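Q: I'm writing up a methods section and want to include an example of the input and output format. Could you take the sequence below and give the corresponding predicted structure tokens, formatted cleanly so I can copy it straight into the document?
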Amino acid sequence: QVQLVESGGGLVQAGGSLRLSCAASGGTFRSLAMGWFRQAPGKEREFVSAHSWSGSTYYADSVKGRFTISRDNAQNTLYLQMNNLKPEDTAVYYCVADRLLSSVRTMKSDYWGQGTQVTVSS
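A: Here is the clean output for your methods example:
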């Protein structure tokens, strides 16, 4: 059983930056595909970014060029560097993990964190 704990959320002004972290335990981190989803109030959950175990990265068009996903296999930690934040990035951000990259990219991951709130003020 994999446990995921997110941190790093908070309140930031538009144009600012935040770095989210996701600490994983209970599994073989380096063999897992990892990713981030977000859910804004009143909206459906949406894919943000994914990182395969082999190093491939994927981004939603809405964050491409502003967000960077990375992982540290030695620290069992996934990161999401978010730059040039916009009010529409306001949401709860969830870390996810699965053996299959396809499951991560389609919100069918076996493992989810509890979420961390990101609020971007205009």
